[in-house]
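ligand=2-(butylsulfanyl)adenosine
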Amino acid sequence: MSLSQETKNIQSYIRDHKVSDISAKELSDFYIQLVDCLVDHNHQYYIEANPLISDKEYDELFDYLKKIEEIHPEIITSNSPTQGLVWQISTWFQQAKHSTKLMSLENTYNAQDLEQRDERAYKILTKINPEDKIHYSIEPKFDWLSVELLYKEWTLKQAITRGDGWVGEDITINMKTIKNIPQKLKYPIDVAVRGEILMPKSVWKDLNKEREEDGETPFANTRNAAAGSIKLLDSWEVARRWLVCYIYDILSWDKKTIEELWLPVFKRKKEADSIDAVIAICLDEKVKKELDAQDIEFDGLVIKIQNQQQRNDIGSTEHHPRRAVAYKFPAQLAATQVLSVDFQVGRTGIITPVANLEPIQLSGAKLQRVSLHNFDFIKEKDIHLHDRIRLQRSGEVIPYIVSVITNRRTGQEIQIDSPKHCPSCKEPVNNIDMHYYCTNAHCPEKTKQKIQHFVSKNCMDIQGIGESIVDILVDNNIVENIADIYKLNDNTLQMQLRRFPWFGDKKVSEINKGVEESKHKALRRLLNGLGIPHVGKKIAQDIASQMNDEWWIMKNVTNTEWLKSIYGIGEKTIENVRTYFEDKDNMAILEQLEAVGINMDPQKYNNYVDSDEAKGNFSITWTFDIPREKIAEYFQKNGYIFHESPIKTTDFILIGEKAGSKKNKAQELWITIYEWWESIIKEFPFLKTITTIDPKPQVQSLF
Ligand code: IVH
């Protein structure tokens, strides 16, 4: 029976039966059926990225399962999706032995290293078979936390960190919080696999933002963040870190591929028939750029011999298998000098020391400033004014001070003193441990930061209001809080604004448009834009998607139980949300926002994606039967971003009759053009459900 059919049967059974009504005879079978069904939907969602049911439907099934387990705890099976996350705090991690020694990859750094490896491989293999030819595959190399997963008869039984290769730590309990790892395999087999636990860059950035807000030192890179997270003793906290795991090696089974077992693989692979072709790929800047653009960080490539017989024949050294080798991308480090230190006030009032640097180039960017995070960090790294420092930056990621070059000190270095007054409002600062805060509710810099956050890309995405505009608006008391932004489309105020530099006709109409458009955006954007500490893009999205159509819930999200039910929300976040909504000033701002017509309905616009997650950008010039807005909405709901007119980053344009200037523009910009409904439907099959009307243009006969 298909999964969809099975799900329908289960849904109708649930509709007809209260948990307490299920007979003892039926209970066990139904329970197993329900668990299997949810496991399969998890697979569809996390591995195939092709959910067959809505989140709401999934939650209904999941809630029902929880109810059964509450009443009949004796029935719970280890592969039940409820067992993925155990609210449990372990006191230590047990040591555990690996099934076979976990080897490490040998590193190469240049073309010559790779050529030598290839020569040695040919020497060994041609001794066995003189005609042998090696085919290589090239995959991205992760360098985070290597882990062995043991599945016994379908089920994930144990996860062990690499440790010394022989013995590692048993992190099974935390592994179960990693959502893309199935609790159950496709086949009932025993298998040991190896993979890497990672933290996506976007999650790492959000986590660091939170840490900065809390005055904690951010993680230098995703690797430290992932390693620090999986070893946390509180599994609930681990779940909040949104780790992922990709599998790249089967240790004990070669009859099926990793994908066939339903395990997650990072699907980026190239193939090469000669070492020259391998080298060309390793040195290709385009390959590096493509990897830098991913949400996962890579530190190189792994070159693997593809043929299984050759892999067995070639064997291994004491520590490294010969069937695979790593090519490490050149490290991106640079040295420079701290020229001065500024203090920056964040939207929560936290004061962050920032170093101004002697400008340097590092992995394609000119760097002049780097965050010193807090006084713990300054002390730990022993950073002084005028020190020479080593900076690191990998991929598209924020630079970080690795260390001070102490042997280049001249004696002129000066200790960095903590601030006594807020650099913006000059009020005395509040000192808690090693952190400093401005507590003045009307500090102009805090207000500016709050507004900049509100209008930023991940929040309300209001075009036209950049840093300098915010400065003018706040310094002249035109805008005092986020809700005041909506005064900007008032005609009288616009007249007044024109006396300031920057506020020409074009700017005013850009702001007008941005402000108006922002009223019709997904609620998650507003939630993120409120600037509640810990409520970033992801949590905002989770809260919004858990809400029904009752905006009032949001005004009263002091309901701890409701918040707790949202996967991934921790105690601290709940506290912050409650504090925010209990504050009278905040409520007044929300009321102001509601009064100007900001969308507060969680059902509206919620499917629209952000640019970093989008499948593509499109534009339309439409004269077909279906309204342009409807077509745009369908594309947006299916993960595409709409551009009013084609621009450089537009990927494709749909063109109806009388396309005119937009078509010319698209041609100039090398944008893909879809002109015929048949070709559009073929490329975007989701449009088939849009309507039964045949939207073909009426072709008029010329005769
Ligand atoms: S397959 C060592 N494929 O690189 C036998 N390993 O030593 C496994 N690594 O933590 C070879 N990405 O676990 C393979 N795509 C990939 C890999 C990979 C990263 C790891 C390995 C180790 C590190 C360096």
